[in-house]
Amino acid sequence: MTxxxxxxxxxxxxxxxxxxxxxxxxxxxxxxxxxxFSDKSTARIQKHVEGRTYEVGEASVRSDRVxxxxxxxxxxxxxFSSSETFVAPNNQKYKWSMDGAHGxxxxxxxxxxxxxIASYTAEHGPFKKPDELTVYGEGEMMMDEVVAxxxxxxxxxxxxxKRRTSVAGAVIEFLGDGLGG
Length: 181
Hints:
DUF6593 domain-containing protein, alpha+beta, 1 helix, globular, DUF6593
């Protein structure tokens, strides 16, 4: 099992480091645009190994596509579903299932298995515990794909969380206008 923490120096900064708990392992970083209308901007992913930096690829919520090590991965979701499936280089189908605005879990897309391959947990708690990614057994053999698709899912979860906040604010404003004014 490998556990990563997403670290950002500033809340709305476009650079995020994905750092393993064990310092001698591979780390990753994400760079993306921030500011107005950047919710669906493409995130560029890099891998850092023994002092060298390698391009892993990109994750785009706008096009539902992840590029990983030169390979284009299309994430497919069904209408009104919170799951996204993709085919890995080993030709096996995998499915990320969103857990509301709390995170997502990656499993092999088979009815017969319920084994977690990875779990992404979004920022949470009163002290804003940072995003985390835990990769289990089978996922460690395709770490770049797991990280790249997890970045994509992290963006989807963040968008869902933002929508929930916007809707809750609108409802409160509407009720406030109706009750107080």
